[in-house]
Structures are given as C-alpha cells and as structure tokens.
Amino acid sequence: MQSNSQRSDPREDIVIGRGPVQELLRAGRPVECLFLQKGLAALARLAAAAKEQGIPCKEADARKLDSLCGGANHQGVAAVLASDAYSGLEDIFARAQAAGEPVFLVVADEIEDPHNLGAIIRTAEAAGAHGLIIPKRRSAGLSYTVSKTSVGASAHLPVVRVANLAASIDALKEQGVWFYAADFGGQDWCTLDYAGPVGVVIGAEGKGVGRLIRQKCDFVATLPMRGKIGSLNASVAAGVLFYEIARQRAGLHARNQMRR
Questions:
Q1: Architecture of domain 4-81
Q2: Rounded Cα gap, residues 149 and 140, in angstroms
C-alpha cells in the first residue's frame, strides 16, 4: 500500500469509485473505457451496464489500478472519460427547454479548489440548475476530487469549458440571459428577481468575482455578513443564491407569521 506521501490525485480524465462511476454510467456521459479489478464479483453490474452502452471493459490488477488512480481508494473500478466528456452551451439550453423552464446556469469564475467546485456542482444540480460553465485556464476541471465531492452530481449536470469567460457571458446575454455576480457591494440577494433566464457567477475564495467579469454582470447579489467573519465559503454562498432562485421559481412564500 502506498503511504500518504506517495499518493497523488488521479488524472483529470479519471473517475474512480463504484458510486461515482455508477452515476457516470446512469447519466450516459461519454466514457472511453472502464478498468475493473480482477476477481471482484461486486463489479459485475457495473461491467454489464458499461457493456450495454458499448463501453469497453478492461481487467486490471490492484497494482495497476493503484498506479492509475494515484493511490486513491478506487474500490476496484476506474472510468476513463472520453475527450468529449465536457458539454456544450447548447446542452444547457436543451436541458432547460426539456424541463420547460427559463435557463438557470452557473458560472464558476476561476475556482481552483476542486472541493469547492464539486460542492457547487452538487448544490447547483440539487437546486435545479441546468448547467455550469468554467474557464479552461485557472480553474479546477472534472477530476476525481470534483466527482467525489459532488457525490456523482457532476455526471448529471452539464459542465461547459470555455476559452474566454467574458466573451461567453456577452454571447449569453445576447440570448437573453441576465447575469448576477455573488459579491460585495451589491443589492440584497433576496430583493432581486431571478424569475427569467439567469446566470449566477461565483468567484474564487479570497479573490471573489474578477473585475472584468463583475463589470459584465447585470446585477451584484450580496449576502449580509452579521458576524465577525467577513466572507463565506464559495460553495456556501452559492447554495444560498441557488435556493433563493429555486424558491422564487417555485412561487413559495411564508405561510405562517410569527405573533408579536
């Protein structure tokens, strides 16, 4: 067994573990091949599901899987993502259209921590977002850590990688999307109207939303900070905004009033 000092993250194009790989197959995401550890009967269902989708399955011993997965706990299975594992913007709009809803997308502005990106993806998928956009540079990508932290949600939510985030926002605004930056110095988050096509921009911890990206946004949504700490974790702030959007779109209002 490798020591912690010898371990490294698996390659970015690898998804490992039985749960994450199962979600990957359930979502029908492009997979190049599956590596399955020899002699593990518990992997038979995964192998059958992969073969039904025409995905090649390769047997591997534990040592090869350990090497492929950087020593992480692979549970005997690793999926190699196809080169087209990322989605296109049209996939986000198609998802919204299929649901009969105005598009709700998330922009992760240079979030380099894969744990934060995974948590944002998990919450976005749960709150009803139709997709997420990340830049190709200075951003975490679809990796083992992102998949694990998202608890498989990254297999269900379309993730689009773009070369120029600012230009992509401009193009989406031309299609009627209104952008809301989660940052300081704006309007109270719950006083804004998110009923139409929306894009929520979440900035990196420590830096927040970049200056140019903030200028591209139509509104700035600000959360109150009433304690001693001046900021929230990026994924926590994202969750507050995502569920305000979900609340407004569901038409939910308080039914009981506290007596004074």
A1: 2-Layer Sandwich (3.30)
A2: 13
